[in-house]
Amino acid sequence: MSDTTHKSQLEPDTGRQRIEWARAHMPILAGIKARFLREKPFAGLKIGICLHVEAKTGVWLDALTAGGAEIVITGSPGSTQDDVAQALNAHPSITVLGKRADSRSEHDDHCREVLRSRPDIIADNGADLLTLLATEEEFTSLRGAIKGSTEETTTGGFRLRENGVTLDFATWVINDTQAKRIVENRYGVGSSVVDGLMRATNVMLHGKSVVVVGYGYCGSGVAQRLRGMGAHVIVVERDAIRRLEAHLEGFRTAELDECLHLVQMLVTVTGRDGALTLEAMTKLRDGCILANAGHFSSEIDLAGLAGAAASIHVCRPGIEEYRLANGNRIFVVASGNLVNLAAGDGNPIEIMDLGLALQSLSLEQMALHGRDVDAGVHPVAIEIEQAVAALAVEAWV
Amino acid sequence: MSDTTHKSQLEPDTGRQRIEWARAHMPILAGIKARFLREKPFAGLKIGICLHVEAKTGVWLDALTAGGAEIVITGSPGSTQDDVAQALNAHPSITVLGKRADSRSEHDDHCREVLRSRPDIIADNGADLLTLLATEEEFTSLRGAIKGSTEETTTGGFRLRENGVTLDFATWVINDTQAKRIVENRYGVGSSVVDGLMRATNVMLHGKSVVVVGYGYCGSGVAQRLRGMGAHVIVVERDAIRRLEAHLEGFRTAELDECLHLVQMLVTVTGRDGALTLEAMTKLRDGCILANAGHFSSEIDLAGLAGAAASIHVCRPGIEEYRLANGNRIFVVASGNLVNLAAGDGNPIEIMDLGLALQSLSLEQMALHGRDVDAGVHPVAIEIEQAVAALAVEAWV
Amino acid sequence: MSDTTHKSQLEPDTGRQRIEWARAHMPILAGIKARFLREKPFAGLKIGICLHVEAKTGVWLDALTAGGAEIVITGSPGSTQDDVAQALNAHPSITVLGKRADSRSEHDDHCREVLRSRPDIIADNGADLLTLLATEEEFTSLRGAIKGSTEETTTGGFRLRENGVTLDFATWVINDTQAKRIVENRYGVGSSVVDGLMRATNVMLHGKSVVVVGYGYCGSGVAQRLRGMGAHVIVVERDAIRRLEAHLEGFRTAELDECLHLVQMLVTVTGRDGALTLEAMTKLRDGCILANAGHFSSEIDLAGLAGAAASIHVCRPGIEEYRLANGNRIFVVASGNLVNLAAGDGNPIEIMDLGLALQSLSLEQMALHGRDVDAGVHPVAIEIEQAVAALAVEAWV
Amino acid sequence: MSDTTHKSQLEPDTGRQRIEWARAHMPILAGIKARFLREKPFAGLKIGICLHVEAKTGVWLDALTAGGAEIVITGSPGSTQDDVAQALNAHPSITVLGKRADSRSEHDDHCREVLRSRPDIIADNGADLLTLLATEEEFTSLRGAIKGSTEETTTGGFRLRENGVTLDFATWVINDTQAKRIVENRYGVGSSVVDGLMRATNVMLHGKSVVVVGYGYCGSGVAQRLRGMGAHVIVVERDAIRRLEAHLEGFRTAELDECLHLVQMLVTVTGRDGALTLEAMTKLRDGCILANAGHFSSEIDLAGLAGAAASIHVCRPGIEEYRLANGNRIFVVASGNLVNLAAGDGNPIEIMDLGLALQSLSLEQMALHGRDVDAGVHPVAIEIEQAVAALAVEAWV
Q1: Residue D5 pLDDT > 60
Q2: Cα distance from B256 to chain D (closest Cα, Å)?
Q3: Which of B6, B7, B17, B59 to mutate to test the interface with A (most CBs of A within 10 A)?
Q4: Which of C131, C134, C153, C154 lies closest to C142 in space, CA to CA?
Q5: How far is residue B322's CA from residue B311's CA, in Å, rounded to a whole number?
Q6: Which among C232, C248, C249 has CB closest to B250?
Q7: Which residues of D fall within a CB distance of 8 Å from A231?
């Protein structure tokens, strides 16, 4: 064993370490990087980016620079991994702005910095960059110089469309693709939610009565994985066609009210506020565990629950016990935040490999032919989506 | 939200907190405690115990004292949760000896202390107490005074039988029951191994080629749960009947050599040394992740691998990267220790509820009729096992 | 047992018997019939119908007459169950034309008879009635008198659109609904194909290597059910996104050429000609069983296979053995016709209950408000689909 | 297509055709036959057999004759396939006695004929031959001349042991093997029961509430396959450990009384009389379908049901409708006989391949070393079982 000992040592450079672990599981980006190295689609171009600065992002930035790009990126407050940012800043073609502890206004300033670097292409998240670009006078001259952009989130796409932001160039919304809906929502979220629930609670899923509220892409994935772990899943879904699908898929389905008294664990995945009301929670059996896997922590009315509770205390890291006046206890995981992110590591690395490959090929298209793409906010071109799916097949199968 | 804030506070007494979270998920012991409170089967009796001192054990000790028992217990070096020990020592009928940092010889001294307290009944773990009792002269007079005992582990049972230890009283081996094999080995281990793998790696199991080596109770459980998470499982099993079972169950099966070049993750669950040799490991494809879910860390020949590796470094907490001379990387989870314990929280709480219920009813039987039970090392009486299974049905279904 | 004997007797009226067995498993239509009896939406109206005359159709016609309709219906050559037709003709409001042995031209004459009865509403199958109505001069005056119509098949909808048939009234295509795609294609076809394969062959599916070519709604259903029976399913699918979905769902995927040498059974579900070419078939291993579950018997090139075969003989009812020049045998089920229909009883009764409920509510809508619906060929209104799904939930859950 | 037509023709010799279809799916016996041809283990020996004379048996007899055996066999009344018997009688080394229409006493005479041919080895079914051999004076001299024997059924083994029949030679009971319990009971019966249910009823299993009574090897297989077809399975099992297993496996479990009012289909697989009493049947909901997959048709009290029914009639081939006084209908499949045999083709061919391979190697052992095996009724030697499992792995994997 002495051999082991003297060869092994904890790397001091944790940021680089994290990036390397991610890289080892991102074969799609590895292939794209190899091609970018040969073809240099971004030669002489600068890409301005707003996206979470963490290990997987680092692997992606590396692929873009292999294609000749210069990168200026800002993370988001709260999600920046500072050691990863430090490792990336060592790269000659990458400038990382911001740190984890930034305030919202500091973040806005970093966004402005990105724009002031006069990027040729933009990759945005939540429309943070594009909104400033469209609304602040300082950036008037930049608007016409942009070749095209991407937006990571569906929410960002909405924000642009709803605010009537008009841009002279095309924006492709990465999340509005069938590939991401299937790969990320059904399979990625399905498994990471189960991961989060097991970590947070250490309870047995086998034989447990678990209600899944919502049977869309995410909800059906969560229901399938819980069943895969032996849980007795009951699906609550208001849409009749989806409920029929759940029923024929072999799931017991019920109205929420019908199953509250027998449920041992309940997960909301509806994408709407108030999926679980205070009134419903008062009907739960003693000891029920609640978690949320939908986009908003407001799916469970925790403010209402807190108001009605006789006492609240943290009973295990990440779990709060609410005791009701009738003596029943309700255990809430991760304060109702997304259980896969808040109690786990979020989606598996491979899921991000596919998403960032969609980003890469979309940005390449903008670099080469962005001005030929219709201006405005659109889903990613189907050819790009098909190409990424083909790369994923090659890498994963 | 201010309401939430002022009601919520982190309990300072973490030991008690852990016990309470466990208690909330141990309904079988709750029922047994209620009966013990009425029937007092241990009135006037002292139980000497060697078992891991952690939260679930605490719930059990409480049930025994409810039955009238006085408890003297020592934990095991390395596994004692000191805050739980502190919380338990506050109980008037419980004496906890030992702490996490104890050496082996300190542990032996604690075992002697337990025996010197002159218990009427013994609950042992790994035959630590019973071996001292049978071999050290100091305890000669105690031997005839014991009503009966239990032994938690199959290994402890072997140790007693192999060492030819003869005792005047009966010892029931808790783990030699069909109930534990099914509930703990197949379902408990199956799910906790998946939990450990996801935590340790954050890689996607969907679509991943995973080899499970060994298809006994544990191995079949691991294979089922990995499949339940979408993995493409390949079973390697030398016994032809078991291999046939895996094949008909829908698993691809193969000789180990046939699948080394395509496997992305490999889990050993064989219960024997050297299930994965250095020679086999040199044939693995680059980036393969290795983990062990069998009893011994020696299932994977890590000493051999370390000797052959060009470099070794920790590449993520709990994961070591071995780089071979041919450039291939092998990632080893938790240094080959049991992945569900070393990278997760071990088996779910409910699993221990069943196991400790078996302990409780066995000890009760020894208290009431121990002298009528045949002396020697035996499996738990089938009536006790059936009774506990019936309680589990009542509590879980 | 004498009691049993004298009470039991084979009913002579097999047509009525078949209808009663179907009725016992068509709760959705039972509910619709009860409402129709009260509301009489078809009072004074005649419905002209072309659809397979079999037991489930009989249950449907009964519900329509309960709503006040007079019915004139012709079946299709080859599918009419003559005993059912006889039983239905005993109903005062139903006229059934045609018999199983009819020629195509006799069928066309029956269609003309239906139109000559001057129906107010039409329910068509394959556009047989509507094409005559639109193209033959005899029916000019009828065209403006029709309130609306339904068309059962997607193919019939295509035929109308492609032939540029213009009608003054609305036609809703029943099969172009999400409800039918999920319920009938994924679940109905999935299970009836497995049923047909087991009946035809009596071979074991557990552990069998089965290739499913095509992973659309039908193909994914077939793959899921075969896996549910323990088969080792390999999915062949050209579309990258669908292939990715199959891969993440846990299926092994491959190019067709990669798996021909190891497959023991192969099912085509692609909806296109020549999914399995002669060249591919010459690479199959000896004894492979072929079946088709797609719409056209031409998915497997049997003419080509017959040309290349050294000998062909029926080796079991419904199975032909083709022996190739190289000595290999290929077993073809049901001459490449739809295996669930040709080797089984077609989709389960309940599936038709949902489809005929869609027909019923669509025809009701045409009766009440047909003239307010946009003329032309459309999918069924989403409100109707939702209403039927809600009825199915009520009946099945 | 003319090519197809002139090459294809229905073979007149249906017995030989059936045998060839079976042979194509019995690779284990094919391998054994090839070895027997070389090694001639039965050279100069006569084997006297009582077993069902059907296609798969024919493939087996052919393998035995390849090993040098002369065969005298009688089938069982009711199960003999006369065309297969005719085809086998054309073989110079095989004599088949009996026909389908034989009475019980004619069968006994055929058994005596088999014994009068003075076989060296016996392969029995239900102890028909061995009981005569042990009890009738005519065969006194034969008893000492037998090298050894096999008995197909567990029931036959019981019969020998219970009747205190003592024989001078060893008898191995084929069905008392782990290989057959797993392969035949769990997987074979599981799939053939689903096959039989679908054929008999044409109802949808997806989403159907199906109660499985009994969770032994057969019952758990039936429950798994029904779930694999999308049914909502509820397991009823009195043994607490088995019930726990079903619960953790993800099945809803219940007392029979708790689920009678909601069940749409019920299958008994208990192996004991009266698993479903008349009293229970009166609580079933209207339209429930009943079937039996256990060994005895008496698992469902049909005599009681017939006595209580207001009317009984065949409502579909193989299904009787019992109408109770309260108006509810109960549909009974195949008069309560084994649903996989009575409504389907019995277990898949491959299952019999394994069972007859166990027979073949057991008989070989008796031929070569029968006199060295302990006299009396025993399970097959574990080495034989392991050898057959290894052959199955080779043939199937």
Answers
A1: no
A2: 14
A3: B7
A4: C134
A5: 6
A6: C232
A7: 250
Strand partners for B48? B72, B122
Residues of D in contact with B351 (CB under 8 A): none
Is residue B53 within 8 Å of residue B98, measured between CB atoms? yes
Nearest to C281 by CA among C214, C207, C213, C229: C213
A114: amino acid identity, one letter? V
Query: What residue type is C245 in one-letter code?
Result: E
- d(C-alpha B52, C-alpha B63), whole Å: 16
Nearest CA-CA distance, residue B228 and chain D, Å: 12
Q: Do A389 and C179 touch (CB under 8 A)?
A: no
Instruction: Tell me the DSSP string of D262-305.
Output: T-SEEEE--SSTTSB-HHHHTTSPTTEEEEE-SS-GGGB-HHHH
State how far residue B231 is from chain C, nearest Cα, in angstroms: 6
Contacts of B247 in chain C (CB under 8 A): 207
pLDDT tens for D261-314 read: 999 999 999 988 899 999 999 999 999 999 999 877 789 999 999 999 999 999
Which CATH superfamily groups domain B185-342?
A: NAD(P)-binding Rossmann-like Domain (3.40.50.720)
Residue of chain A whose alpha carbon sits nearest to that of C385: A241
Q: What is the pLDDT of residues A358-396, one digit of tens each?
A: 999 999 999 999 999 999 999 999 999 999 999 999 999
- pLDDT at residue B10 above 90? no
Q: What is the pLDDT of residue C10?
A: 38
Distance CA(B48)–CA(B69), nearest Å, equals 10
In which residue are the tokens 């090392």 written?
B377
Residues of chain A with pLDDT under 70: 1-12
For C396, residues 6+ apart whose C-beta sits below 8 A from its C-beta are A244, A247, C27, C350, D207
Query: ipTM score here?
Result: 0.91
For the segment A161-179, what is each residue's pLDDT rounded down to a tens digit?
Answer: 888 888 899 999 999 999 9
pLDDT tens, residue by residue, C69-88? 999 999 987 788 899 999 99
| CATH classification number, D183-342, choose in 3.40.50.720, 3.50.50.60, 2.60.40.1180, 3.10.350.10 | 3.40.50.720
Query: pLDDT tens, B146-184?
Result: 999 999 988 899 889 888 888 899 999 999 999 999 999
CATH of C186-342, one of 3.30.420.10, 3.40.50.11720, 3.40.50.720, 3.80.30.20: 3.40.50.720
Q: A101 with A75: CB under 8 angstroms?
A: no
User: Count of CB contacts below 8 A, A vs C?
Assistant: 64
Top CATH class of B2-173+348-396 equals alpha beta
| Closest Cα in chain B to A26 | B203
- Please state the domain extents for chain A: 2-173+348-396, 185-342
pLDDT value for B7: 42
| Closest in A287, A314, A396 to B24, CB measured | A287
Q: Which of D183, D191, D236, D241 to mutate to test the interface with B (most CBs of B within 10 A)?
A: D241
Question: In terms of CA atoms, which chain D residue is nearest residue B393?
Answer: D244
Question: Are the beta carbons of B182 and D397 separated by less than 8 Å?
Answer: no
Longest dimension (CA), chain C: 69
CA distance D279 to chain B (A): 25
Provide the 10 A C-beta neighbour count for residue B383: 10
Nearest-CB residue to C392 (from A187, A244, A392):
A244
Chain A residues with CB-CB distance to D263 below 8 A? none
Residue from the list A8, A225, A397 with its beta carbon closest to the beta carbon of B314:
A8
**Smallest CA–CA distance from B249 into chain C, residue:** C230
Asked if residue D4 has pLDDT above 50, the reply is no
On chain A, the residues whose CB falls within 8 A of the CB of C394 are none
